[in-house]
Amino acid sequence: MPIADRQPRVTIKDVARSAGVHFTTVSLALRHHPSIPVSTRERIEAIAKTIGYAPNPVFAALTHFRVHGRVRATPPRVAYLVNHPIEQFQHEQEFWNGAKEQAEMLGYELELISVSQGHHDSKSLARYLRAQNITGIIIAAFEPGLAELKLEWSDYAIVKIDSLHMEPETTSVSNDQRHDVRIAFREMQARGYQRIGLAVCRASEESIQFRYTAGYLIERAAIPLKDHIPELLFPRQASPAKISELMGHWVRKHKIDAVLSNWASLAQLLSDAGLHVPEDVACACLCLPVGNTDLAGVQPNLHMVGVKAVSLLTSQLKQGSRGVSEFASNTYVRSHWQDGPSAPKQNYATAP
What we know:
about 350 residues, alpha/beta, 434 Repressor (Amino-terminal Domain), Rossmann fold, 3 domains, six-stranded mixed beta sheet, about 40% helix, globular
């Protein structure tokens, strides 16, 4: 490309000019320095992304040389660990996309690594991370009952996405499932539904310390005892046919008029059980995929969960923090409600 045609690199000073702050504020914000308020940092990060800022790799290499005494020719790498294929799960793709995008913006290379049969076990993973000089890891939505991890945790900066059922107890990021189910419960009540039931997978609940159930029990405690519905927890790795069978029996037995579930295929599961949505039973999804307009439900910002996981991890790396913190923290990203045809407003005069 001729020199005249090249676009000038967007610099920290350009970001500072757009944000109306000093360039040192931008530098601190992009490094997640605790002196910068979270609201200011997030505003600066959004501006940097919008105008196309990316860390200068030459400057980063020189800085690394000044601190560590050697030049780093390639971007530092961090690991994104999973224990099952994520391609078939849209919500896990959202985690990954957000994490990858944020890693690139901060000048890191994020590597997707599988810890599962036919891939790495804990020993081979430890050897690989050591050989590749990877000291930052994200444990991303590990599913209970599948491969888990046993590493020398003091060697790594660690952040989890969900995965609360397993060691180590460390910094984690997630959508706010307890708040999500409370939003959904109240929205269904506002539409005239009274017998509202929760149906979720036990494995999902284990990985988030039963936060859906916790939110449901909080809301259920505030309604008349006659409308209390026992939650339905699907067995681990139950087939869709089995889940449909269990759900149909549960809905009919308890005369449920609205179902809350984190399964995006909720309406189809009810249909397979011989229940028409919304004529026989209404439903709302607690983890509504982006772009789905067929269901009412709660749409979590899973992309932002991935973004925050990387931001927290890189902050640990820059501060030289390794191992399990004595005071592990959990960050929860709020969601929003979306209306949909699966939960129309009831006629209060005729509602059961």
